[in-house]
Amino acid sequence: MATMGNLLLPSATLSAIAKTDSMKIIRVESVRFNENISIGGGSGGSDGAEFCWIRLHTDNGIIGTGETYPYSNGELGVLRDYTRHLIGKDPRDIDGIWKSIYHSMAMRNAGGADMRMLSAVNMAQMDILGQASGLPLYRLLGGRSRPEVKVYNTTTDYWAINNTKMGADTVEIVRFLLDRGITAMKIYPFHAKGPYITAAEIDRGVGWLRQIRDTAGDRMDICVDCWGRFDFPSAQRIARALEPFNIMYLEDVMLMNNASSYAALARETQVPICMSETLATRYEYREFFELNACDVVMYDLTWCGGVSEAKKISDMADTYFIPTSPHTCGGPLLWFASIHLCTALPNLMIMESNYWKYTHQYPYFINNVPVPQQGSVKPPETPGLGAEIRPEIFTNGDAIIETVAAG
Length: 407
Hints:
The protein is an alpha/beta fold. The protein is 38% helix and 14% strand. α10 (281-290) links the parallel β8 (273-275) and β9 (296-297). α2 (72-82) crosses α4 and α6 (170-179) packs parallel to α7 (199-216). The radius of gyration is 21 Å and the shape is globular. It starts with 10 loop residues before the first helix and ends with a strand.
């Protein structure tokens, strides 16, 4: 069964593979987006498309689409180097293709654009398998663990809610979310000029939490993200300052490079430690689990190795009774795939969402974007990812398609 080194694909995935016909990948395409796309809607300056897609064409006519971000030139640049692992191969060989690409990059320092492209390839493969089997993605990942997925809202100035800003408009933002049944939010309250944070800077950040508690009491759960900005002494002081507020978790307070430092922090605080959207593959998470260095596991399935690898990371975390809270603030296919995955995960805590993205950005590219209702969201029941990509983006100049390899 599942071990630390080798986690099996879910039985539902294996069953779907067994019930579908063999096929071959005959063409690999890249899809990048026009830099001049303007979406608007109060994004605070974060506009357009920061993501790219790949498309895998099969000899039976199925096209699978995968996504990653945010550096399209690098990600699509490395795609050509890995097409030898794809052309002529059966896309249903999920683990085999994953390991062959991973081995090639691992022997040249795995990570970065290579890992993000592997994640996109894996998503496209899972999309193909869903279409071939007639099943929505969550069914391939083990089926429903819940009828709907609870979300929190990532609250930033650059993906703003109607041009509001935390601090100045905190009360308005909190009430806006509560009116929509969203009872959890992520904020970025701590800012400093370097890796050390002063007492005054901590107090200013804590002021945001006081505003939330004064407005909503305990009705609003709070996640705090520090984006890896701080050193260990500052992380200690931030964690101590957060303890009275009973937050959901503290995310990436330091860079993710030292599991021992996170283990030391976790031992001395009652604040749950969340790690990390920046880690990739079960191999990188292993040490954090073994050292009790995190209480919540976060990954981005367009960065961590893909949909099947994200499931394996969560299954590994579950052996330590650690819940999962996936990162989703990328493109629309990440949103779809994450909803499917979270529907299936037995150890889900909560999933990220962002109001600007699902109300403005995603609908620009996709017709059937799932929108949270009373704080929760559901996956589509159509096969594969189930995303209805708007055909006009391929004819109006918004999406630029290039054949990377064919055979």
